[in-house]
Design goal:
Layout (H helix, E strand, L loop, with lengths): L4 H25 L1 H9 L8 E7 L3 E7 L5 H7 L3 E3 L9 H4 L12 E8 L2 E8 L4 E7 L12
Antiparallel strand pairs: 1-2, 2-6, 3-4, 4-5, 5-6
C-alpha cells in the first residue's frame, strides 16, 4: 500500500508538531523547568535528571552533576560547605524517604534562599554529584512560604 504525498506530509507535520510541543514542555512547563526558573540554578550540560515530583506545597528534584562539573557548580551557585551534623537540617523533605541518599561519603554543600513567595534549598554531595533541589511555594490558602 503506497501513501500519497499529502498523507506523508501530514504525518511529517504531525511528528514535528509533537516534537516541538515536547521540547516546549521540557523547557518551560516541566517540574525541572520550574525548579530551575525559581531557584535560578543553571544545571551543567549532561546533568542527569533522576526524579522530579510535585508535592502539595513544593516541588522536589534530584539530579546528578557530572563529576568534572561539581566544583564549578559549587562556586557558580555560592554553595556553602556543611558539617556532617548540619546535613539533614532543613532538608527533611528531601531526605525523609528511605534510601534517597545512597552515598553519604564526600562533602555536603548547601544554600537556601527565597524570593516572591517561593523559597528553595539546594543540597549537593561533592563526591557523588547528587544534587537535590526543593522549592516551596504558597499553599492553596495563600500562605506564602517563609520569605516575604
Amino acid at each position: 500500500m503506497k501513501l500519497r504525498k499529502k498523507t506523508k506530509l501530514r504525518i511529517l507535520i504531525s511528528i514535528l508538531f509533537i516534537l516541538i510541543l515536547s521540547l516546549l514542555y521540557n523547557k518551560y512547563l516541566s517540574n525541572e523547568a520550574y525548579l530551575k526558573r525559581v531557584s535560578g540554578v543553571n544545571l551543567p550540560f549532561w546533568t542527569v535528571t533522576n526524579e522530579t515530583e510535585s508535592m502539595e506545597v513544593a516541588v522536589i528534584g534530584k539530579f546528578e552533576i557530572p563529576e568534572r562539573k561539581v566544583e564549578e557548580f559549587i562556586s557558580e551557585n555560592n554553595l556553602k560547605k556543611l558539617t556532617n551534623s548540619d546535613v539533614g537540617i532543613g532538608f527533611e523533605n528531601i531526605l525523609k524517604e528511605k534510601n534517597r541518599v545512597k552515598n553519604t561519603n564526600g562533602h555536603w554543600f548547601a544554600i537556601e534562599n527565597c524570593k516572591s513567595g517561593n523559597n528553595w534549598k539546594i543540597l549537593l554531595n561533592s563526591q557523588s554529584g547528587d544534587l537535590w533541589i526543593l522549592v516551596r511555594f504558597p499553599d492553596w490558602s495563600g500562605d506564602s512560604a517563609p520569605c516575604d
